[in-house]
Amino acid sequence: MIRQTVFSLCLLALTGSLCAQEGGQTPMPAVGTTQLLYEAGQLFGEMQELAVELEIARQPPPQDQLLVLVSLLPDERFELEAVQVKINGDFAAFHEYSAAEIEALAQGGAHRLLLKRLPAGRHELVARWIGKAHKAKQEEMVREVRWAFRSGETRRVVELELSQGEEQTFPHFFLREWN
Amino acid sequence: MASPIRGIALLMALTGLLLALPAVASSLLDPQIRAVHFEARLGEPQLAMTRLQAARRQGFLDHQAQPADLLLGDMLLQQGLDLPAEAVLRRVGKAGDEQADAAWLQLGRLHYRRGEDEAALAAFTRIRGSLSRVAQQERLLLEGELLLRSGRLAEAEQRLRALLKGRKKRSDWVDYGRFNLAVVLFRSGREDEARELLLSLSKQNTKDTTLRTLSDKANLTLAYDRLEAGDIDAATGFFKKGRLSGPVSNTALMGLGRAWAAQEEYKKALVPWLRLSKRDSADPWVQDALLAVPYGFGKLNAYKQALQYYQQALSVFEVELERVGKVEEQVDNGDMLRTLATGFGVDDVLDRDVLPALPKASGASHLWQLFSTHEFQELLRSYVRTGQSLKKITRWTSQVKADDSLPPASREALLNRAATLETRLTTLSGKLQAHMQSLALQELAQRRKRIQAYSAETRFSIAQIYDYAAKRWGEK
Q: Which residues contact B322 (CB under 8 A, 6 or more apart)?
């Protein structure tokens, strides 16, 4: 009789805990949590707004901006090492590409090489691709493109493209303006 | 019966798989959009996102607004900025261009993650075209689960069957779908079909962790199903099939013991119960086993061993109460949160597999159930992000102060906004900390109450055995 009582107590405890466990989750006071998460979400959104305003404040006025980006399609014929940009004969940018950067370019990415404020008027940009052409007589190779343009009226965005193509005998280096 | 497996863990594990940004960006895209791809790949997603947002704000990408916004919405989501992400993605969805379906998919995922079931279903319903294979599988699994939760069993079944149809290749989405379909069938009263489906999962013999866990859960569900039906032999067979070390192994060991006990095979029942009783005593199943073992010995008329194991259980409960007290101190003095926040990245997920690796000061041994809830992890993520934001504000403030090129009025306005945000973030951080501490203390109080009740029961049982012995054999 006594044993029976003891055992049934144990069994009750067992069954009770089994049911509690099947839910698997600790109950949470939903209101406090939801409100706090909403408040946090609002605040993080405002933080991002401030980040965007800071970014805009640091940029030159749109009509004075020149943005230069670099892209490439991978090719065994030319191994890009660096890109250099001169504006009106002065060095404006030079960037040596790491293996990770080349990989990101090869996946279709574009590198923001230069964002510059230019006074209104006429300018000349000279872009140079520096790299290795393994099959050429002279392995070191430099290719150059010149572009004359006017600033002060609208924002100028240019892409320095290194495009390939099986039909071409050699990679194609060119400058493309985006509006 | 069994609960459906929520896709959240899977969703988090696969984050990034369905990025709006394709593996290879199209050369037809504006290079400013492709620059986001480049910077994100090189570990600067936040900078990339801010630049993209700034370009959109100034109208620089109006000619490619939809792909830019789809990417922006996706990146905002990745950074945990749900509210602005929702606004941007809704814009893309409503525009109805070729990016619209991807935007509705993202919105569906967002609402699903936030537990906004109706909104999630409404977003999924707006997908008109065909999605990629993996995206479609994800959509069907999530829709199936949402419909199941709202009791629309026939529709849930239709989605989950569509997910499984013709799928010969292994996929986590399909495996989870199979389990959830079994739950739908159980709830629809089609138990034979449900069992058949679970049997197909239970038979998986694989090293794949996801599949093994699913297989364990299937075995456990089948075992309890058989136990409820009184088919003890079959239940025992299913309990035995589960791993002895997986996430559901404690439940399985307890169940196996119960199955034997139901057949009055107490010697056999003691084997899994004794094994379970030697595991971490912070686990409620282990605490149950500590009482089940002397119960089993008692049934075998082995009162001496029963008494010995009751006394052992009592000591364990006392030690456990002390441990709960120590964890309460760690929660109170802030050690828990400091330890958790130090090792927790905003992209991390605290599932049960990673919890044992957490330092002792986190209190994970007693609080893992709380830690593994989605809500707690969102709170922790917000807390970590608040700390990061405060550091950012400090950096921005010194940068703005040092930047002579900014017009004074603009500088003043930026600094004022930064100062206001800093105050609000500090307040929020305090509130988050207090809330998480309060949740942890509530959980510990429940544990304390439970152990105290178990201790009282154990003392009562010991007294009864002494009383019984005294009556039967006298004072000697």
A: none
